[in-house]
Amino acid sequence: MKKVVASIIAVAMVLVLANGCSTVGQTTYKGFNSVKAFKIVNAPAAKSSLHFEKTLTPGQGGVVSGSYNIGNVQVTYTVTVPAGALHNTETVTIDIPDVTEAREDLGPSPYTFNKPVTVTMSFKNLPNVPDPSDIQVAWFDANAGEWIVVPSTATVSGNDLTVTYRTSHFTYWIIIDPDE
Asked: How far is CA 143 from CA 16, 30, 63, in A?
């Protein structure tokens, strides 16, 4: 059984500003270090990490979710895999290496699904909520050396932010600071 990794690390999920450079209709950011992680709270990097996992089957799919609190902020990451999306029975995992930043690596990397999966990130009680129009999601194309923006939905309600996107593959993704 393969491990499908949905790790929340600096090389993964990107919420980026909408004013990146445009290449053939796509917004891109050149270079792996061209973006900075969105800070959930203004605190030094945490040395603690978290791990969530669930084994899913191709015929049923399922949901892998993990929540934690950092200060007054509740953070939840959810990966929803529809029936028929997996090639084989897989263990989908979410690893969070630094709970102070919204960072993830969805994997295994690379991994291509038969159908798109949905990824949702929810942040409740954020001290500083970004404007949802400033948020986008992107993946890192190692061959081109750039982050590629994909369609996403960001909503704000009071001090809560929810970001959702769909993808047919897992690779490196990161949530970056919209103020950078």
From this structure: 20, 12, 30
Question: At residue 4, what is the residue type?
Answer: V
Neighbour tally for 3: CB within 10 Å: 13
Phi and psi at 14, nearest 5°, equal -120, 120
pTM of the predicted model as reported, rounded to 2 decimal places: 0.79
Domain ranges of the chain: 2-174
CA 5 to each of CA 27, 51, 58: distance values in angstroms, whole numbers, following the listed order? 26, 10, 16
pLDDT at 149 over 60: yes
pLDDT of residue 147: 83
Classify 143 in phi/psi space as left (phi over 0), alpha (psi -120 to 50) or beta.
alpha
The span from the CA of 75 to the CA of 77, in Å, is 7
